[in-house]
Amino acid sequence: MSQISVERTADPSMTGFQLFNSLVKGDLKPGRLWHAKNYRAKFALRTLLAPLTTIKLLENIAAIPTCQDVLLAQPRLPCKLHHPYLNVHFKRQDTVKAIGEHYQMMDDALPHSVLRKIYNAKPYYLCEIIGKNGQLFRIGISPIDSLNKEGELSLLFYNDEGTMLSECTFTLLTYLDKKTLFVGGLQGPKRSVPHELIQTATKECHGLFPKRLLMQALCLFVKSVGCEQILAVGNDTHIYKNWRYNKKKSSRMMSDYDSFWLSIGAETTQEGYFRLPLTIARKSLEEIASKKRAEYRRRYQLLDDLELAAHAALSR
């Protein structure tokens, strides 16, 4: 990951206009892109299209206590207003508000030692999962810059070779006066990854597939940061349904959001979002055929161990 240029680091007392000035002049270069004069010029020109909201966004960024770490992890954060963000309904003002709230809520909820691990060059691993045949899997959290249109943070499921098998991207914000974790994206692995790796992971994890395990970690994260609800985009409210992406990127949506959310007990909202359960329901052992109960016990133990490990990782 690119380093912030040494000419100047983000000053916690910096105003939005001062941050804009430092970026355009090249005094502050949070990543390789900012070393290019044409990139900085494009940023300046696009800012002229929405000067007030851009300066407000930059003020919110400058106010982040871990601003330098955040910019290092998300070098395109100052450019968030130049593209659709989080869901198809969001306007620029919504984006500015959501980003300000996200970093404030993160700072209020988690120790700075944890935040610095999250905003690092490598994913911060919340837990390790040992499969039934000894294969190792990890769930990490990281701001993935290539997913920056879908949210500020991503939970990621990796196998023992470091191959990403699933990712869930989200932003913390206030929606209808409730602290909310808003999921802007949920995807499986890259097209080049063999489907057999998903099948192997599911078998190793006692029938729990990677997306289901990410949802368990997501529910735990919601508790850790004090959110009151989980909302998520559906097939028709994902950012790639924005008119700008009608043909270019709509084909990149490889997940059927609606079906998956409904499968874990979500409810639809009037806006086309899904309200996810804060705790994913489990079948009682009495409901399960006796020959399958041992497998379900192991499955539930894995989920409990995941939750304990993730809670500890977010507390230290």
Automatic annotation (TrEMBL):
Recorded superkingdom: Bacteria
GO BP annotations, alphabetical order: DNA damage response
InterPro entries: DUF535
One Pfam family this sequence matches: DUF535
Protein name in UniProt: DUF535 domain-containing protein
